[in-house]
Amino acid sequence: MNFDQARFSRDDVYEPLLSEKDSTTVEVDADGVLPDDLTRDELTLPGLSEPQLARHYTRLSQMNYSVELGPYPLGSCTMKYNPSFTEDVAGDARAAVHPDRSDRTVQGTLGLLHGLQEHLADIGGMDAVTLQPPAGAAGEFTGILIAKAYHEARDDDRSEIIIPASAHGTNFASAAMAGYDVVELPSDEDGRVDIEALDAAISEETAALMLTNPNTLGLFERDIVEIADMVHEAGGLLYYDGANFNALLGRARPGDMGFDIMHYNVHKTFATPHGGGGPGAGPVGVVEELAEYLPSPMVRETAAGYEQYEPESSIGKVHGFAGNWLVLVKAYAYIARLGDEGLADASAKAVLNANYLASQIDLDVPYGPFHHEFAATSGDRDAADVAKRMLDYGVHPPTTKWPELVPEAMLTEPTEVEDKASLDDLAHAFNAAYADSDEALETAPSKTSARRIDQVSAARNPRLSWQSLGDEE
Predict the structure, then answer these.
(1) DSSP E strands: which ranges in 73-134?
(2) C-beta separation of 153 from 311 below 8 A
């Protein structure tokens, strides 16, 4: 029995490469071999030869958009190009070391981990760094657990964490998971922390303020020293969300601004794969006063070499062994290759690219001056429709509808890796999609492999197999 292709012609449903998705049903004779309730009379298998299968998946791969084909200008949680040399370094067979080996037999591994701890601490202005957390959000949670341990050690039972309304959703989740009540902080008319609102929110219950700097609008918090003083005077800690640290590399350090804890989003700042919970990495740095609470193990250098140790008041392990080792190798390789001048150049180009792109698009950017990203508004046009139409111009669209401070937001971050020609292509797509007709926007995308879907139905009743195309509604 063959799959009935006629029932699903392109006139009825647009399904890429549908004609290649064939199957054959064969009869199975298992009488007497196994119990009847464990057997079946027929089995449906792919009806394809090896060359057909190889060509089908090759064509599918060619239909996928990837960072090797063009930029992902997603604001905030950006995916930037990961240089292939880091893959070569991580793929070196000598990096395949069993994590249970004794310290004396893995001095090279421990030396690299110690070196990365030191590099990240220096870059962030921190005194100590753990490499264990497997992603940025896991780093947030780890940092808040460290803050909690710090307060509990002083018999200071605090119940609240202050978070700006424009912060990543993971900030709110991390605070809640650690058992804190979240106090949401509004922005002022300039898009930055409202100092008066912060003053009203801070109390003896404040355990920490979680802050991203530059913030989600790409704006640097000009009052950061005053903010740090306010939090510290109340006995709280200042937490740095490292999502936008790539805007400051080699030019400013969170530790120098008064931050006590920070996590590093190495997927964006130091070109490792995006974790999404793992396998990734979200190292956490702290000032000296908090170092004793870091997860175990840490790596230190002694007269006899490198060794792992447990900090005096460690919160315990937050991940297996030393973290996701091969991701950390990539981060180390990237930092070592760029060096101080290269990292500073990366941040300069990240800011330059964002500002150049913003100057070339017809959409309004209500908040500035911004650094590495900007939030444009599509005004009376639906941002999601404009984004879908951009796909027809061969580019990936930015983040839409967030932050909510900007109506019909299109949060855009081109990163430092794009050249002028790439940015000009993005600008053309922005402008062409924004100026298109209502009909074109409402039916977009029309030129992509996957066409416009009913997002509500797709979320609630997903069809995960091509065979389900024949299911009755």
Answers:
(1) 128-130
(2) no
CA dihedral 45, 47, 49, 52 (to 10 degrees): -110
Cβ distance 353 to 423 under 8 Å? yes
Q: Using CA atoms, how far apart are residues 202 and 155, in angstroms rounded to an integer?
A: 19
Residues 307, 113 contacting (CB under 8 angstroms): no
Tokens read off for 343: 């990292």
Provide the 3-class DSSP secondary structure of residue 193.
strand
Parallel, antiparallel, or unpaired: how do β-strands 128-130 and 284-286 relate? antiparallel
Query: Which architecture, in CATH terms, is 82-336?
Result: 3-Layer(aba) Sandwich (3.40)
CA distance 398 to 72: 7
CATH of domain 338-452: 3.90.1150.10
403 upstream amide cis, omega within 30 of 0: yes
The model's pLDDT over 70-99, given as tens digits with 9 standing for 90+, comes to 999 999 877 788 899 999 999 998 878 888
The upper half-sphere exposure of residue 235, i.e. CA atoms within 13 Å in the direction of its Cβ, equals 16
420-434 and 325-360 helices cross at what angle (nearest 10)? 60
Sequence ranges of the domains in the chain:
7-63, 82-336, 338-452
Give this prediction's pTM: 0.88
Name which of 378, 368, 359 is nearest 424 in CA terms. 359
Distance from C-alpha of 217 to C-alpha of 189, rounded to nearest angstrom: 12
DSSP state of 34: S
- Token reading at 1: 């029995």
For 417-447, what is each residue's pLDDT tens digit?
Answer: 999 999 999 999 999 999 999 999 999 999 9
Cα–Cα–Cα angle for 149, 150, 153, nearest 5°? Answer: 80
Nearest to 73 by CA among 450, 320, 358: 358
